[in-house]
Each structure stands twice: as structure tokens, then as C-alpha cells.
């Protein structure tokens, strides 16, 4: 409507008010008009804004037409973690267990442009709901996100994961990603950002203290019964060796909760979530480096 009103104002059919004048000046300076910024995302130039609009449209149109993609372009979502009472969209859109976007469009009677700009704010929350509903006895309050960086690029993904989802399009700042070792390493010379491979985002169930103790005791009892029945010392040796190797492997792998931001400017408004990523050095080292994952570096 803004562009239509601008054409009418230039032709003299309507009055050029302050809002239209601001939009006209912004377009002339290749900036995003403030009236668009109120309901969309930030961009350094108007050209980048239109490019993102087209890419978001392509992803959502493909989702509506042919179903969910094998890997989601994560930066294409306006604000994947905007949940709560102030989220106007989530009050209208409650994603189903299968993330059926087509059904939600019909039920809520929302315009397609509104979906492009405002929808999908609860993507990660919807993922937690979807996985928790597929497991009997899981409570949503104990379900947390879990991430695993794959060795594949977006073009190499041929099918969606059995549980969770693949995402792509993130950039690593202040470090490099070692695809062979699957971990964060020191950045290469003169490198500010590194493109991340596809990331598998799923969930895990955080057990309470009582549930954890019960599960541990259950495993101990089952192993003890197995040893008594077989009465074989070699079984004990293999089990002990396996547990020792697993503990050593877990101890040698350093991991870090890396913040994910929408833009290079790290503000509370741009913060999305945290992904747990393996790293080559201690988490404190990379925190001092200021390592972060970014959706947009322009």
C-alpha cells in the first residue's frame, strides 16, 4: 500500500503526508522505510531487504506448495524465538504437531504477506512441542534444544531427519569451523566469518534428579543381572573398557553454548538462542574471542 500511495501522491491524486514523505526519502536513499521496519526485519540497504523478502517468499511458497523442506533456511525466519504474551502471531498461530503451515494459513485466514513478515516466530518452540508430543510421557518443561553440526552443506541434504530438523545459512564469527574434526578452531588469517554446514536441531529430555537416579540404578541392575546370568569375566572386562572409553571420550570433547544473533550487532533484540557446539579449546577461550553464530553478516 505504501508504494501505491506514493504513486498516487506523486501524480497528485492524494496529499503527500509525513509518513509518505519519510518513505519517499528512505527509498531515494536506498534505505528501508520506517513503516516497513515496524513489521519486518532490519537491513543495511533497501536492496538487501528486497533480496531477503524474495528469499523468504521462496522458502515459504515452497513449503506451502510441496511441503516442508529437507533443510530450513534459518535466517529466513523473522524471529524464530519470539514467544510470549507480546507475540501477536503466536496468539493466532499455534503450530500443530506436524508444523502444517498450509492448514494454519487456512484456519487463521492470514494474508500470505503477513506470513512472510510475521509468521514462524515460534519455530524452535514448535519443534520442542512436536518432538515432545511424539514421545509418551514427555513434559514440555523438561524438553530442551540439542544441536549437532553435520558434515554436509545445504546442497548435499537429500532428506529430512527422522526427528527434529536441519537448518542452514548461519555464519560463525571470530572462529573457523573444522569440517574434518567437526569442531571450532582458530580463524584463518584475515577471515572474519566462516560459513557453517547444515546443523541438526532436535531436542532432549532433561531428567529430574529422581528420574536420573532411577534410570542409573535401572542400568546398573540390568548390567548386574546380565553378568550374573552369563558368569563370564570377559563380559565384565568388555563392559569396563567400554565405559572407560566413553568417559575418556566425553571428557576430551569441549563444548560451548554459542549465542545466535540475527545481525552482527549483538543486542538483546537480535538475540535468538544458544547452540551447543564442539570446540578445540576451552569454552572460556572462545568466550574471550567473542565467538557467535550470525544469521546475517551484511
From TrEMBL:
GO molecular function: dynein intermediate chain binding; dynein light intermediate chain binding
Residues covered by the Dynein heavy chain C-terminal domain: 3-82, 120-204, 227-295
GO biological process, one term: microtubule-based movement
Matching InterPro entries: DHC, Dynein_C, Dynein_C_barrel
Coiled-coil portions: none
Pfam family, one: Dynein_C
Cellular component terms per the entry's GO annotation: dynein complex
Protein name per UniProt: Dynein_C domain-containing protein
Organism: Hydatigena taeniaeformis
